[in-house]
Amino acid sequence: MIEGLDLDSDTRLLVVVPHPDDETLATGGLIQIALDAGAVLRVVIATDGDNNPWPQRWVEKRWQIDAEARRRWGRCRRSEAAEALARLGVSRANIRHYGWPDQGLTGLLMRDAQCEDQLVAEIVDFAPTLMVAPSLADRHPDHSALRVMIELALARTAFASCRRFGFVVHGPLRDDLAFAMATSAEQVRIKEHALQAHASQLVLSSKRMHRLCARVERFELPSSITQPGDEAGRLDWTLPWPRPRMRLHRSALYLIAEVDDRIERISVPLSARTRVVDARVGPGDPPLLDLRMQAAGDTLRIGLSSPRRIGRVLAKIERLGARLVIYDGHGWFGNEACSR
Fold first, then answer.
1. Which of 150, 217, 152, 214 shows the shortest CA–CA distance to 181?
2. How far apart are CA 282 and CA 156, in angstroms?
3. Residue 250, φ and ψ in degrees, nearest 5
4. What is the pLDDT of residues 278-333, one digit of tens each?
5. Which fold is adopted by the domain 226-334?
6. Looking at the whole model, is its pTM more than 0.85?
């Protein structure tokens, strides 16, 4: 038995990760323990990790990475993931590759519900009793966006109350909001052996990858999803705002809001000069969702109100345009419910 997590032959564990290698780094020990306990297991890998040009340039001795080169790299990484999972005891029949765009999951999330539709079908088909996926707080935008998709998808199924635990690969995870999973020396050895299958990722980042692999696997408890205070007809909360000191890029407030049982995807431009913004956003003509943002130092206070029922709301400060650094200062912040 693992503290906070019981696994047995009745467990149906669905592991959902954004990139090839996350399945090993974040859940390589858990996968072994689940299989040893007789659990039924499926692993979903959302992207092929093909937008990873520097290792590819090094391996292939080329500078230009065109569309065909990226597809080839993606096929390589799929093969590596299959071998890594085989070393962990998972057969190809229990692996799903979605091929979504690497470093593009936030854009897909904000565009429409197509990715959630695919996740809904997966969840209904597999009927999980337990899901393990990235935390909302993971600083890689693909990781946190994938968790938002999963939460939205689960809410549309009969498995909305399915137990789920989050992992963080990039960024800190508070000790008081997580539990650590003990693994044996043999399980650690097998996990390290599985990592070796991701040869393309070791050529330039061997030390970092081995360091991540060697960490004790820790999983965020479901209750650690941020819940700001709420009252009738209004939601108020405060987000950290890593406001740029130099105007190197633009940013926006991304909102995923449930209004009258419909999911609305809202983007509000921000600037380094933003102090107070009052706007009507979301559904309706005129929109019936009132938004007020007020900046103070490195925080952004957000107020939402509407005559309609406001349910789940998730928010993130998103950097727009090309990125020199992949990682965010923060992931997504979400509430569980805010009803009139």
1. 217
2. 21
3. -95, 165
4. 888 877 777 878 888 888 777 888 888 888 888 888 999 888 877 778 888 888 98
5. Immunoglobulin-like (2.60.40)
6. yes
Cβ proximity of 126 and 44 under 8 Å:
no
Residue pair 89/30 in contact by the 8 Å Cβ criterion = no
Q: Residue 269's CB: how many other CB atoms inside 10 A?
A: 11
Gap between the Cα atoms of 22 and 13, Å rounded: 16
Q: What are phi and psi of 237, to 5 degrees?
A: -160, 170
Give SS3 for 76.
helix
Sign of the CA dihedral 122, 24, 104, 61?
Answer: negative
C-alpha–C-alpha distance, residues 18 and 27, integer Å: 12
User: What is d(CA 237, CA 219) in angstroms, rounded to the nearest whole number?
Assistant: 25
Matching fold, domains 12-223 and 226-334: no
Q: What is the CATH architecture of 12-223? A: 3-Layer(aba) Sandwich (3.40)
Secondary structure letter of residue 9 according to DSSP:
T
Q: DSSP string of 155-200?
A: TTSTTTT-EEEEE-SSS---GGGEEE----HHHHHHHHHHHHT-HH
Residue 41, amino acid = L
CA 267 – CA 270 distance, rounded (Å): 9
Q: Two tokens at 86?
A: 């085989």
**DSSP letter assigned to residue 2:** B
Dump pLDDT digits (tens) for 55-80. Answer: 989 998 999 999 999 999 999 999 99
Residue ranges covered by each domain of the chain? 12-223, 226-334
Burial of residue 134 (number of CB atoms within 10 Å: 0-12, 13-18, 19+): buried
User: What would you report as the CA-atom Rg of the chain, rounded to the nearest whole angstrom?
Assistant: 20
